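User: Second chain of the day. Same drill as before.
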Amino acid sequence: MTPESIRFNFSNFKLTWLQPVEITNPTNTGIWLRLIQFDVLLKGSTIGSGFLNESVVIQSLNKTILKVPCTIGVLDILTAIPDFIDQFSKRTVTFDLKGNINAEGFTIGVESSANLTIPNLSFLK
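Assistant: Same format as last time:
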């Protein structure tokens, strides 16, 4: 799913966005989700994280979309510059997301990708 609310904060040197995560409950009872956490990877290296600590009930035989706040620090961006430059010319960077969703009594693995469109920074010239 496409990231939302992409922002680069110059005061604390972080790139942030909301990553929609679709969760399906295939059971006949509601499931309590307690925590979503995952690493943001670029070409296999962890450069950021996504974290949502919120109790949510996914109704039976239903799906919902939760928006997980994600953060990448500028120092992490700088260490990944070669990988960014490789994708930057296309104005899109593809991140892998790997982590867990903690529900009542069990854990679900998360593996997905996010395509982050690079904003036009021509105003900085």
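DSSP finds two helices and eight strands in the chain.

User: Great, on to the next one.
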